[in-house]
Amino acid sequence: MNRIAVLGSANMDLVVRQPRLPRPGETIFGHDFALVPGGKGLNQAVAAARQGGAVDFLGAVGRNDYGTELRALLVSEGIRVDGLDTVDGPTGTAHITVLDSGENSIVVVSGANAAVTVLDAGQRAAIAAADFLVLQCELPVPVLVEGLAVARASGTFTVLTPAPVVPLPAGFFAGVDLIVANRLEAEELTGEADAARAAESLSARRGWAIVTLGEEGCVVARGGVALGLAPARPVRPVDTTGAGDTFVGALVARLAAGAAGAAGAAGAAGAAGADSGAAVGAGTAGASDAALESAATPGTARARAEVSEDAMIDAIRWATVAASVSVTRAGATASMPTHAEVAAILA
C-alpha cells in the first residue's frame, strides 16, 4: 500500500459561531462554542485517512489534555503516530470565528508546533519510506526545508499547501511536485490576481499547481500551462473551516490509491517545467538549492510515482466532492466525509 507522510501542525480549534464580525472595541454575543481537533497538518492527515489513505503523522503536541486528545484522535482514525512527539508546553491552538454565512477567520497560536525545528531519525525514515509527503506552513521553515530535502533524495512525491504564506528559501518551490493554494495565497506568492495565470506561474518550476476558488471550483496547471477550470459541486455551506484541508487530504489519498505500480517518469514534466524559467515566490528569500540538498538523507532515490493528467483530474473530482460534503457540516475534522460517502455521491 502506498504511504502518505504528513509533516504538519496539530492544534485544538476553539470555535465560536456568531452573526457578524465585531467592530473595533465592540462586544457582541456568539451563539455557539466548540472544541474541535484541527491544525492544517492534522486536518489533512485525517481527511486522507478517511479516504482510505495509509498515513503517518509527523509533528508535536504539548503535555496537556489537548495533546492527549489529539493523539487519541489520530490513533482512532488509523493514523500512525510514531512520529508525533510530545514536548513541554501547550499544544497549538486555533481561535476560529465562524459567521452565520459560513465564512470564517482564524488566529493560530503555534504552541508545540513551534518546537518542530528538526526531524529526528524516525521522522526522516517515515518520509523516506513514504510515496507522498504533504506539507503546510504552520511549522518552522527549517523543518519544512529538511523534510522536502529528505523527500527529494528519496523519490517521495511532494505536496505543499503554502498556508499561511511565509518567506521560504530560494529554490524551495523547485522541489515541490504539487502546490495547492487558495486564490489569496496564489496571488500573494505570484503577484497574479488572475487564478489561471497564478496557477501557471506556480506550476512552471516543477510539475503541478491547483488554485482553489471556493464555490467557483479550482484551476489546474501543469508545467506552466493551465489545463482549465474544474467546477465545484453546488451545496449550501454551513461552515467552510477545514474545506481546503479536506480537499488536499482527499486529493492525495486518491492519487496514492492510483499510484501503485505507476512509478517512473513523473519527474519528466517537472524537469520540463523547470526549464521554462517562470519565477515563483514573492516573499521568498534565503537559502539556495544546495542548502536544501544538504539536509537530505543520503541514499539511492527511487522513482517518483507517475501522476498522469487523467489521474490528477480523477483525484480533483474526488477531492471536490469530499470538500463539498465538508462545508455542509460544522467543524474541521468533524465535517470530513468517509470514502464510502464520496463514492456514493460519485456512483
Automatic annotation (TrEMBL):
Enumerate the cofactors the protein uses. Mg(2+)
Family designation: Belongs to the carbohydrate kinase pfkB family.
Q: What class of enzyme is it?
A: transferase
Cellular component (GO) terms are:
cytosol
Please describe the quaternary structure of this protein: Homodimer.
* Name of this chain's protein: Ribokinase
What InterPro entries does the record point to?
Answer: Carboh/pur_kinase_PfkB_CS (IPR002173), PfkB_dom (IPR011611), Ribo/fructo_kinase (IPR002139), Ribokinase (IPR011877), Ribokinase-like (IPR029056)
Supply the EC number(s).
Answer: 2.7.1.15
Q: Where does this protein act, in terms of pathway? A: Carbohydrate metabolism; D-ribose degradation; D-ribose 5-phosphate from beta-D-ribopyranose: step 2/2
GO terms for biological process, alphabetical: D-ribose catabolic process
UniProt function note: Catalyzes the phosphorylation of ribose at O-5 in a reaction requiring ATP and magnesium. The resulting D-ribose-5-phosphate can then be used either for sythesis of nucleotides, histidine, and tryptophan, or as a component of the pentose phosphate pathway.
Primary location: cytoplasm
The record describes how the cofactor is bound as: Requires a divalent cation, most likely magnesium in vivo, as an electrophilic catalyst to aid phosphoryl group transfer. It is the chelate of the metal and the nucleotide that is the actual substrate.
Q: Which reaction does it catalyse?
A: D-ribose + ATP = D-ribose 5-phosphate + ADP + H(+)
What is the scientific name of the source organism? Cryobacterium zhongshanensis
Q: Which GO terms describe its molecular function?
A: ATP binding; metal ion binding; ribokinase activity
